[in-house]
Amino acid sequence: MTIFKFALKRSFSNTTNIIFLTLFPIACIFLPNGEEWPFLPYGYQYFGLLILFVGIRLATIILEDREKGVVKRLAVAPISHFQYLSQNLLAYSIILILQCIIVVYGGVLLGKELYQPGWLFILYGSFSFASLAIALAWISIYRNKDASFLVYMSLIFIIVVLGGLLIPIEIFPDLLKRVAVIFPTYWLAEGLKWIVFSEEILDFLLINGVLWLYTIVFVIVGSIRKIN
Amino acid sequence: MRVLSTVKFTALRMLRSYIVLLLLLVVPIILLTVFSFILSGAVPESGVPYINETSMTQVLVFQLFGGSIVMSLIYNDLFTENKIRMYALPFNQTMYAFSIMMCGALFSTLLGALLMVYSQFVLGVMWQNWLWMIYIISLMAVLSIIVCLIFTFSVKNFKIAERLSEVYGIGFVVLAGLFFPMPENGFFDFLGSYGNPLTLSMGAIRDMGESNIGDAWFQANILLGAIIILFVVMLILGRRKIG
Asked: Where are its TM segments located (chain B) (predicted)?
């Protein structure tokens, strides 16, 4: 588990990452409640946006490895690509899960109205994995980490708007409402709605299932070894 | 005046930086289009469609990030990669830095104007006063460039300066209350009104639209004042760093 240990260390080694990983989630807890929309406090609505950013920041570490030729050295070392990738991903998912715990249970401690914190935590967990997987697939088509980050950032803004995380999806015109289904953020927004109005457990399972489907597909796309 | 011969190349470098074009032109165009779909036909009681306000906000918000290209060009040319080459050239380096700034301001204003043209002719947004709008946009562009350069000159690590410039942009969007309502107390009220370039410029344009010419000029002049003060700060910091 050496790689795992160092992946954890590296994730926290840079100042921007520390701010992203600790300060921002805590700030999320303290954001105010919305009036009519969103149903959960603003911080919990926007936490999805933060998860997407953290996902790409963490996945960029793998891209950095490729840029610096570490992957090439690993290829001749007695370690398989599977070990390298799985230990890295394990470290990142632990960080993301910790973040979700901080946000959800910190909110509970502060007495925020979260309806069903347990389910909320599971929803954020599924979305974190989806975000990490998408980021992993994204970096596999890039060679330059700055370019990949900036283009992904612009993509995030569009996805977040189109998925109904920033604006309630009810006011969208029909066409956009139907298109929104393909974005993972749509499913997060649906999940958040479910948390508040909880109807059937099956709906919640479907939402998580879709997020897991994204995770599986994008991990497969992103896990191909690229040596350049 | 030998610097003038470099202007052409600075302009070319800016026009070819595809990431900046993507972030400051393509993304806002997509967002504006999406918003115009969502808000199509929504007209509040005042009679001005929501999309007008939204597109004005968007055009101004993206001006907050206009300084990033100038920052990276100056950093590359005068501090790192091309430093020695630039100092070997027979021209005044300060004037060169200044010419990059002017080019950046023009470039950023041009992008803003393109967004306005797009939203007028494709999305049917009516801009009341083009000249005033462009004046405010250029003020925002210059302010953003100066702030970014202050970060470049005052922070040792350029990565941190870049992050700070993003904090400047996103921070003022958040403080303007566009994402969520800010708490109501004196400090946040100030930063959500007269202490915030974004709300100042939005207010200036809104007042001009309602022909409150006095108020509009007042808010624009606060921006201009901030630019002058920060320009002096930038000069002092820049002299220490370059000289």
From this structure: 20-43, 55-75, 96-118, 130-155, 167-183, 216-237
